[in-house]
Structures are given as structure tokens and as C-alpha cells.
Hints:
By secondary structure, the protein is α+β, with helices and mostly antiparallel strands. Helix content is 23%, strand content 32%. It has helices at 2-21, 26-29, 37-42, 98-127, 140-152, 166-177, 184-192; strands spanning 31-33, 46-50, 75-79, 84-91, 130-135, 160-164, 201-205, 211-212, 222-223, 234-235, 238-239, 245-250, 262-271, 278-289, 295-299, 322-323, 329-330, 332-336, 340-345, 355-360, 366-374, 379-392, 398-405. The strands form 6 sheets. Strands 1, 4, 19, 20, 21 and 22 form a 6-stranded mixed sheet that branches. Strands 9-12-15-14-13-16 form a 6-stranded antiparallel sheet, with no helix packed on it. The radius of gyration is 25 Å and the shape is globular.
Amino acid sequence: xxxxxxxxxxxxxEEVIEGYDAACVLSMEAETxxxxxxxxxxxxxxxxxxxxxxxxxxxxLDVSGAARTDVVQRFVPTVFRSPDNVIYxxxxxxLRDKSHMTKMGQAAALRLAAEVDKTIYGIVAKNxxxxxxxxxxxxxxxxxxxxxxxxxxxxTNQTRKAFLNPFDYQVIGKDLGNKAFxxxxxxxxxxxxxxxxxxxxxxxRTDNVSNLAAIGTVTGTTVxxxxxxxVTSMTGDVPTDNRYGTLGVxxxxxxxxxxxxxxxxxxxxxxxxxxxxxxGQLQTFRVISGGGTxxxxxxxxxxxxxxxxxVTAQAAAGAALTFLNTVTKPVxxxxxxxxxxxxxxxxxxxxxxxxxxxxxTKQGVPIVMVAQGNAQTGKLFVRHTMVYAPxxxxxxxxxxxxxxxx
Length: 406
């Protein structure tokens, strides 16, 4: 009988894995890795990933007296979330109907897969450093503008990916379908709301909706001091997280600033990240933490000089912030390959007195199922578990298209 129960659980688990394979979109497009479980345990489920190096150019034949490029080893912390679980149980009567197991297992797979994609969408929506604000409805051209914003910053040699929420995907399909010509793509967009890749973006439709809430009354919010940051390798004994910097603000309405808000600062333009030329476009910033206070943690960090320069000038004291998210709307996210990471972990459940099964989906997602029967209650307890760490490694290579604004 024990063997029969184990075989039934194995078949159930196979059905769960098949259901999971059909449910991922964003998680298939992030950079995935599988840190060593023992190393992760010893590191407290935190690892540090290295970022790319930047360099300075000096002129002249004799460079003996020229300034050397500071070699800065930059790392980004990746912290594993608390495990996500789906748990349920069947009693001895319900177990007579095997469809209970099958359908519940499929529901568990879909729910876990949806949680991964929702989490990735949410962290990119919150941390993306490039913001394209659109007054009015989204159009095809908004994503070619997003492409231009990336290219002008020197983001050219990586695959670029765009993920449209279902509502803006429908509008894009209508925009393409309404074109005066009736090519195969415009006909498909008209009939089925299906759109091709936009510009150099590999384009995906998702079922994710991540709203960026409208900013409250923030009139008169200004920079309190000339703010400059440097890029460093270490802060004490811990690698510096150079993705974020602080910005002091003042004004009667700073209590209304919230985490996730997007803004620009006059005179602070974005630069090409390699040759450091002025893009002519204001740098966009996001509030990561400290919303409602006089000290905001923002991304990207404001770096006005050196090999990691990302803006034309520091934020001048008294400069007024212009907030971009004026209407609550769902965002569309995009990123360059390598800017978003998804690390998967493995757990070691004890097998004494219970059935433990481990598998890896086609997308490479490790998932564990634990089943334990209780003879006294006549019930079978089932648990599906996964552990992962989504990380925006480089916010300056991620963006959002934010339509419907004023």
C-alpha cells in the first residue's frame, strides 16, 4: 500500500511540474542561476553579484602623469525571499476522487508560477531608473522612444525586452490595427490584438498589472543641498550597494512623497554611460525608500564625475523636483539582458515520516513537494514550496513606460 501511495504522489507531482511549465513569462527572460545550497546557508541566504567595470579616457602620447582609472569592484546584494508555499490537505473520503489531487496540483503550480512573475514585474516597476512618461494613451512610438532612451545611454550591445500589461497591449494592437495600410501585422493586430516586436525590443504580453500610484500634492519640493556621490567598493566590511544614493529634500509637502515615485531635477541630464556625452534628456530618478521624509534613497545614485558618471551635473541646492507619476496607471516594464536576475534556491526537507520529492521544471525552477499522512485524522497534508531571489542588478538598464499621465 505504501508503494501505491508513493506512486500516486509521483504521478501527482509530475502533473504539478507540467502545469508550472506552462505558466511563466518574465521568469523565463531574467538571468537565472542556482547558488550552491551549502554556500547559501553559510552566507545567510545572501550573495553578492559583480557589476561591470567602467573606464576613463586620457589624451596624449606621454601618459606617465595622467590620472589612472580607479578600479572599483562593484557588487549588488541578492537576498533570498522567505519561501513561497501552497499547502492543502485531503481527507480519506476526498482521496477516493483522484481528480481532486490533479486539479489542486495544477492550481498550486499556476499560483506559484504567477507569484514569481508578479514579484519580478513589481521589483522592476519600482526600481527601474529609466522612466518614459506619456500624456495620453500609449502608442507604438512610446516603445521606440524607450529604445532611444536606452541607446542614448549606451545600452546597445544587449538584447532588450519589453513586457506590456494586458490593457496597454490591447491599445498597442488597436494602434497598429488602425494604420492606414493593411499589412499582415496590422491585420493580425486588428483581428487578434497580436503585436510584433517593437523596435529592437523582444516584446511580450503579460497578465501582470503593476500600478504606479499618483503622487500627492508635492508642490514646492526642492533639493536641500548640492548632492554628489562617489562609487566605492566597500562600506566598512560590506560591499557598497552603488545602485542607490541619498537626496535631501525640503518643502511643506514632502510627507506626500512615497516610495516608487518618479521625478526629474532641472539641469541634471542623463549621460551616455560609456563616452559620457550629454544625452539632452533629463535623468529620471525613483524613490526607493525614505518616502515622506527629508532624506530620500533614490536610484540611480547621482554621480557627476569619473568613470561611473551618469549625469551632467550634481543636484543643485534649491532645485525643484518635477514628479512624473501624476495619474495612477499600470506600468509597462523593459530591461536589457543581464539587468534583472532570478536566483533559485533549494531546501532540504527531512524525509523521515513523510514523502519528499524534488524536481526542476523546463524553465529550470527547483520545486519541492512534501506529503505527510496522518492515520489518526485520516488526512494527507501536501505542501509545494519554492525559494528564489529576484534582483534588479542594474536599475539604469531597466525602465518603465508610463502612459495616461497629465
